[in-house]
Description:
By secondary structure, this protein is an alpha/beta fold. 36% of the residues lie in helices and 25% in strands. It has helices at residues 55-63, 84-89, 106-116, 121-135, 150-162, 180-194, 206-212, 230-235, 242-250; strands spanning 15-26, 29-40, 44-48, 70-75, 78-79, 91-94, 168-172, 198-202, 215-220, 223-229. The two termini are 34 Å apart.
Amino acid sequence: MNKSKEGKGAASATPMIEAIGLSKFYGIFAATRDVTFTVNRGEIVAFLGPNGAGKSTTMKLLTGYLAPSEGTAKIAGHNMSTDRIEGSRTLGYLPENGPLYTEMTPASALKFFAEARGMSPAERDQRIDAVVDLCNLHTVFNKPIGKLSKGYRQRVGMAQAMLHEPEVLIMDEPTAGLDPNQISGVRDTLARIGAERTILLSTHILQEVEAMASRVIMINQGRVVFDGAVDELRSHGEGAHPLESAFHSLTGRAME
């Protein structure tokens, strides 16, 4: 079992995300094939791979958004094919470029999502206050989402994913397309979230792996090609940028 980064709660041996032989076929094309891994309570795990490797498909299988052709996805012990509603109660999902109602404000959007989840007015108000604090949305709370920067829209998406206090968060490229200041803000938000949650985080930014994660799962051509600690991944590389070197080596590309 990997140790969490300093400052985060220690991971336990309780499985919270389980991919068990997950395969997804489209005709003869395999988007994923026999993907198997477990993320335990309290871990922040980076999910890496080149474009088209199967990361987003795997995340959609784990969340129940897609049905697997073979295998099983479990969230907090719930089979996401047969017990998706209960599993979803423990899951917060931020898809890449997650859809938001751009004519709404963060205030109205979060109220809508809370009511859709059946929260009482008191619980709704308490949870909205909590995620607004967590994601630093005070200054844009009543501004139309369509007028917000991409960084703030990402924070609104995170607030929505956290609204029901899920134990598990699955986030697909939460820092894609952001500038360095926005990335820093999202990183700070994830650090606060990760203090008490289990997170599977897809990213292309290797610096984010070192900053955020204690463990890396790497996928290439639909298969898991690495699962281990960040330091172990670094040991697969060489030169001035060992993580980048290891990424290229494990995904079959030579460094230019």
